[in-house]
Amino acid sequence: MFTFRTFIVARKGFALRTFATGVPSSSKAFTIPVIDFSKFKQAKSSAEKKQTAEEIVTAFKESGFVYLSNHGIPRDTVQTAFHKSKEFFALPSEIKDTLAWEDPRSNRGYVKIGRERVTQSADPAEIAALKEKAPDYKETYEIGREYDSEWQNQWPRASDAPLFKHTMLDFFQTCHNLHVDVMRSIALGLDLGESFFDDKIQDQCHNLRLLSYPPIKSSLLVNDGQARAGAHSDYGTLTLLFQDSVGGLEVQNPHTKTFIPATPVPDTIVVNVGDLLARWSNDVLRSTLHRVVSPQGKQINDAEKVTPQRQSIAFFCNPNFNAEVSCLPNCGSPAKYPPVNAGDYIIGRLAVTYD
Description:
alpha+beta; Jelly Rolls; four-stranded antiparallel beta sheet; 9 helices; 19 strands; about 25% strand; globular; disordered N terminus; metal-binding; Fe2OG dioxygenase domain-containing protein; metal ion binding
């Protein structure tokens, strides 16, 4: 017996937004809350700051996801990043291919459609089979910290993509600054002290990923296991996801294993826990499976629909690559996982994801 559970997203100045899905009546409701982050950043008392921090940590314990509103990144800044991303992906293939991603230690450059297959598997043979059967229908461009002495970003010529480099480096720094504030809220919510993570994330070993999901015939997305991006969890501490209005992101309800649409909410950022933060917290904070599926296609003839183009930008936040990730204080005993070097972990996951 199924009943409809409601998923309510409240946003300051807007009416409540309600999402419903058919789930077993005995299961727990699954909610991705909208949290007003200005209450943390502009708190007038430690109690007010602590309250917002606990709201964030509670959401990360239960669903692993939040919509962050009033996060401090101006709408124009986000729109400019989207505009420059769209201009890049519109470049001819012969230009983009000169910037091809080459090495998991670098994790920089252009990734053409079909080269990546996100999955929970770490088996190269299994991943190769998944790519053959159901590759991800997306292209990406990966950007790391610019001042890295060993691994350099790959940039298109300014004549091909005016202001692209400047825009993306500014956006990278803006996202890092927000990441620091969110990690401070998590530290406070876990009773670790607000600055606990500061010296563990300062090296900015992050990855700014621009994503383009081109229009595609809907019939090509109906194979078993096929999606614009397959079900996966993220590798690092947090992901800051900027969505357009097309939609397609779905998050798995951990109680029912069904996937729930994470409908775009204007002017919010979707923030989710990654595997390293889950491991760091001894699974107190939840790294939740998610995927990108196809929205309703547009009918182009009697037999075929076309799925519309989709854009998103993901900022994958990581600890310093020399940081040891081991069970945090206040996160239970015994530790479920042995200590791991953050850089080795991230590079190992990347190495089996790409061909």
